[in-house]
Amino acid sequence: MAESLLRSLPRLSTFLRLGAGLALVTLGALTTTAASYDLADALEAVDDTNLSVLLSRETVLQTMETATQARAGLLPNLTLDASQRRSQSASFGSTVSRNGINNRFDVGLNGRLDLLDPQTIATHQAAKIGILVARQNAESTRETVRAAVATVFLQHRRNLARLDLINADITRADALLDLAVRQRDAGVATQIDVTRAQAQLAIAQQARLQQETEVRATELQFIRLLALPVDTPVSLAPFAVTISTSESTVLVSPEDQAFAHRADYQSSAQRLEQSDLEVRAAKFNRLPSLSLNGNYGRASATAFDGEDAAVWSAGVSLSVPVFDGLRTGSLTRLALSRRRANQLRHEDLTRGISAEVQLALQDTASRRAQIQVAQTSLALAEDELELAQIRFEQGAADNREMIEAQNRLAVASDNLLGATLQYNLSRVELARVTGDVRAILREQAP
């Protein structure tokens, strides 16, 4: 039996090696490569991955094809027609007589060109402006998505930093528990001080569990915006905005910059121009149209019998509308109504952009001031914790002061982190309302 076991060892070793190799291959297949982004990469990835951006791009292509269809009326229309006809006629008199059977084969090239059609010309011009409108709408969608990506990017970085703060709170709470135990053993503190320290540690540990959920939530939001696989681990590079003491002096005011660069504003202005052309096209229905038509081909009794003869015709036609059942008047009034509606929307958008810019400037200044207040509060909380720890170590007080100081330090640290995030987000919003979210990249702190 021992000899059979010895003989089976090489075979068993081979099976084990094969199994280990299969396990390694399976593990490698299950391992997902982490997606690493800095903010610039994330903003650029929007163009090729985000659903809203991709759909807006398809809308542009559809609008271009619509304009191509509108242009078709301005180009020659050519058709190649071939037909074989066979007929028999009858004559009626005192008796009915049948004529012979007639055969005719025709093949020819027919063409038509509208030399003057004002309505078609105006419609084509409006369709070309529609392409510009669609492109501006696509750019507006892209800017909106970029702002959302930048917001989630910064929120995720904040959540990771907040997780680090909570881990620091846990470290302090654990140190407090160790100090309370030593103070109790030395007869300086009581068991209630140890219990308070244990409760403080439990609260910090619970906060960490909740924060891990927040981290995962913003990670999934980022994954969703860039259409990544849900199980893809994400690594985002740090990004911080330079906190300036005041707004930099620029030659162009933020409002003028917004009107010059906002895609939605440009789209609204172009939509007004498109409405003017639609009104003109509706009125042009009352104008005459001039067209050239003709055909050239060959005719014979049967196809390819070698006895064909040339046939052709040419002509110019003029069409003058006399009465169209009041259709032109209705189309004109409808186009004028749409023009007035677009004018109202444009005026409202102008006022809205001015308000957005002013609010963004005010919010940025306020968030900057809040960072300074949060920094002062953090410094005071650190001093308070240091003094409370000295008093507890010297037995001058129990650890309630130290616990309260730790809590205030945790709140002050979180407030500073939140104030910094809000300032960063306010700069993203200011970049968005002035027309270029990517401008936030130029504000990165060195």
Textual characterization of the structure:
- The chain is of the alpha+beta class.
- The chain has one domain: Up-down Bundle (Outer membrane efflux proteins (OEP)).
- Helix content is 66%, strand content 15%.
- The strands form 2 sheets. It has a 4-stranded antiparallel beta sheet with strand order 2-3-5-6, with no helix packed on it. Strands 1-4 form a two-stranded parallel ribbon.
- Helix 4 packs antiparallel against helix 7 and helix 6 crosses helix 8.
- It is elongated and about 145 Å long.
- The two termini are 74 Å apart.
- The N terminus is likely disordered.
State the gist of this model.
The chain has about 450 residues and is of the alpha+beta class. It has a single domain (about 30-75, about 120-295, about 325-445), classed as Outer membrane efflux proteins (OEP), CATH 1.20.1600. The protein contains nine helices and six strands; from the N terminus they run αβααββααβααββαα.
Task: List segments where confidence is low: pLDDT < 50 over at least 5 consecutive residues.
Answer: 1-31
Report the C-alpha radius of gyration, rounded. Answer: 40 Å
Work out the strand percent. Answer: 5-15%
Quaternary structure: single chain
- CATH level 3 topology: Outer membrane efflux proteins (OEP)
Q: How many H/I helices?
A: 9
The helical percent reads: 55-70%
- Beginning-to-end CA distance, first to last residue: 74 Å
Instruction: Supply the CATH superfamily name.
Output: Outer membrane efflux proteins (OEP)
The average pLDDT value, as a whole number, equals 86
Shape summary: elongated
| CATH uppermost class | Mainly Alpha
Give the number of domains.
1
Pfam families: OEP (PF02321)
Subcellular location: Cell outer membrane
Protein name: TolC family protein
GO molecular function, one term: efflux transmembrane transporter activity
